[in-house]
Amino acid sequence: MERDTLLKLLAQVQQGTLTPEAACKDLANLPFEDAGFAKVDHHRSLRTGLPEVIFAQGKTPAQVAEIFHRLAKSGVNVLATRADAAAAAAVQLHTPKAIYNETARTISLGNTKEKKGKVAVVCAGTSDIPVAEEAAITAELFGCEVDRIHDVGVAGIHRLLAQRERLNQADVIVVCAGMEGALPSAVGGLVGVPVIAVPTSIGYGASFAGATALLGMLNSCSPNVTVVNIDNGFGAAYVATMIARASSKSKL
């Protein structure tokens, strides 16, 4: 349940258009709903402003579908990450309007019409797009305007410099890169907003499945760069959404 939904419910009770008993029934699943194999946190959006997200990897398709269905019934935007085609098919049996993005491995439901803040999602190479797209879908679903900027790695720095105007329009920037992980530092030196670096597991042997990029980003000389875990486009976008929302409020 989102804050606006709860306030509307309480207003209906106050106005006499909804009985306290009916409101109590609607609130029965707060703060969480016990599904046996999972405790679905319906209260999270009230605490943090964003609803619970399903990490599908390691769950059966049936488990993903059940959690997704229970969240969808509460009226929040729903997102599952690291989902495969089998999980998506199971979700769509219960929730036909859910959208599966094979590239990002996400299943999503909902649409935030009012956009608050702007997030640029940048990736070094085409191979980094799956992680970048996970970030972009997350930020969009949770209410940010997203600008996707692909294939601007440091091997051809002129490609990045050509995007300076777009970069400077963002409230926060998510940068996904593998190999040596140099792109976030380059972006950080060009802009005056937070840069969230996402090391990807793209690269040859000595990249150590993203560990080299992670260490390079942690040692960035650009002080506006912070780092999330390897391939964690979702985590970067979640924090970016919170920063962008705060930035949009400060501009009012």
Concise summary:
This protein is an alpha/beta fold and 252 residues long.
Write up what this structure looks like.
- The chain has 252 residues and is an alpha/beta fold.
- The protein folds into two domains: 3-109, no CATH class; 118-250, Rossmann fold (3-Layer(aba) Sandwich), CATH 3.40.50.1970.
- The chain has helices at 3-15, 20-26, 44-48, 61-73, 85-94, 129-141, 157-161, 164-167, 183-188, 211-218, 233-250, and strands at residues 33-34, 39-40, 54-55, 78-81, 99-101, 106-109, 118-123, 145-149, 172-177, 195-199, 225-227.
- The strands form three sheets. It has a five-stranded parallel beta sheet. Strands 3-4-6-5 form a four-stranded mixed beta sheet, sandwiched between helices.
- Strand 1 (33-34) and strand 2 form a beta hairpin.
- Helix 4 crosses helix 5 (85-94).
